[in-house]
């Protein structure tokens, strides 16, 4: 049975057309919307109750107890009402980006149950001032920003940038959710190692030039020059774990390296390697058995955004590291913390250069069918598009935001391949080296 509440509206000078219907299911009604030439069902068309139960269960599992909750998307209100009942002492703010759906919802039979939730406030995003919009998400961790699918589906085209940010955030949250068991176990084991944190190491390198070495396909072309740089010892070399074996194969031993992944796949990065004087900086949730393989100095890093790590850092008076989701993004924040001067990226392709995922001798190297890549990005030389992936796109945006928010830093992309990274200066590695040696 379909009860129609038809609403034809135009948003943004007639770009987005919407038609709303209430549809019966075997339990409670759901909402069907024709929008942007798509049919969108806001809750399950079979059993909204079951869907809402699962959504709320997942939402509560990762919540930070110290913060309020923000929900993106009104949907039919079922998820809001249930979460309100499950968390009666917590303030819940619901944000709806679609003005026309917001207005329709307030006149619909679904509004009453949300209105009666005394701990819930509903806000229409576009009616807020720019300051209020910014403050809305300030100080809230991703774990307490709950994105209902309906909230993303109905974001209008004029809010495209916000939708991209929320979509990226949702992608990261799903990735963490799939690894949370490993993360918790590793955190317990790694904490028991009682390795020292990085608190006392701030600015230890005193503005020395650094190169952050990743294991993208373009690393291969830089090996000859990296050998010379390593031999002359005038630049600090920091590497991601995946780049270790390609570097060692070329007789290059970095000053330090980093591992953050909670999964067993990192074991191959250190298997059969003996690096007694090379320092390992590892995330508190990194795969424990990989960490214990290392024979040299070790420091544990407590990461921002992981509640147990934040508590531990506060307890020990230690510092936090921004992770950004990848080992290279975390390593960048670490290198800046350690006192990097001019800093260059090498092997940071963030794309499938020449149809490859990684450099030669990297255990994770694989061929990538470029025709199957659904995403592309502007290439390093800004001449064409190169194939990439969702996670690589998120990392690239993180690098861009980091540079934008740290305008005092000298940041260079010397990958000479892969993706173009906004707000970084793109120069050849040879030029970077000559520049910092001349300054030195």
UniProtKB/TrEMBL annotation:
Pfam families according to UniProt: MptE-like
6-hydroxymethylpterin diphosphokinase MptE-like domain location: 186-354
Annotated protein name in UniProt: 6-hydroxymethylpterin diphosphokinase MptE-like domain-containing protein
């Amino acid at each position: 049975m379909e009860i129609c509440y038809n609403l034809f509206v135009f948003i943004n000078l007639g770009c987005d057309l919407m038609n709303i219907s209430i549809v019966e299911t075997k339990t409670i009604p759901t909402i069907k919307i024709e929008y942007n030439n798509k049919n969108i069902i806001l809750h399950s068309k079979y059993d909204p109750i079951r869907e809402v139960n699962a959504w709320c269960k997942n939402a509560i599992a990762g919540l930070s107890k110290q913060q309020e909750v923000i929900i993106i998307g009104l949907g039919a209100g079922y998820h809001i009402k249930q979460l309100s009942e499950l968390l009666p002492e917590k303030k819940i703010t619901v944000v709806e980006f679609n003005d026309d759906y917001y207005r329709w919802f307030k006149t619909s039979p679904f509004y009453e149950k949300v209105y009666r939730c005394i701990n819930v406030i509903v806000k229409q995003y576009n009616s807020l001032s720019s300051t209020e919009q910014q403050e809305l998400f300030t100080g809230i961790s991703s774990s307490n920003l709950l994105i209902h699918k309906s909230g993303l589906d109905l974001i209008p085209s004029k809010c495209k940038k916000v939708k991209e940010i929320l979509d990226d955030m949702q992608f990261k949250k799903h990735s963490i959710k799939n690894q949370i068991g490993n993360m918790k176990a590793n955190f317990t084991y790694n904490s028991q190692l009682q390795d020292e944190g990085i608190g006392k190491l701030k600015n230890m390198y005193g503005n020395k030039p650094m190169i952050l070495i990743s294991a993208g396909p373009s690393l291969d072309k830089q090996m000859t020059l990296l050998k010379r740089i390593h031999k002359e010892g005038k630049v600090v070399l920091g590497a991601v774990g995946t780049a270790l074996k390609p570097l060692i194969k070329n007789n290059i031993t970095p000053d330090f390296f980093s591992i953050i992944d909670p999964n067993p796949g990192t074991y191959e990065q250190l298997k059969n390697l003996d690096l007694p004087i090379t320092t390992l900086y590892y995330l508190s949730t990194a795969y424990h058995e990989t960490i214990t393989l290392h024979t040299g100095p070790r420091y544990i890093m407590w990461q921002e955004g992981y509640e147990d790590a934040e508590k531990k850092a506060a307890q020990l008076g230690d510092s936090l590291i921004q992770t950004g989701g990848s080992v290279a993004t975390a390593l960048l924040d670490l290198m800046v913390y350690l006192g990097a001067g001019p800093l260059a990226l090498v092997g940071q392709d963030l794309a499938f250069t020449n149809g490859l995922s990684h450099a030669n001798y990297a255990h994770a190297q694989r061929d990538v069918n470029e025709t199957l890549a659904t995403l592309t990005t502007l290439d390093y030389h800004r001449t064409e598009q190169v194939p990439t992936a969702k996670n690589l796109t998120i990392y690239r945006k993180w690098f861009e935001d980091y540079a934008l928010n740290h305008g005092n830093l000298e940041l260079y992309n010397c990958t000479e391949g892969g993706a173009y990274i906004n707000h970084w200066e793109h120069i050849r590695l040879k030029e970077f080296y000559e520049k910092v040696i001349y300054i030195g």
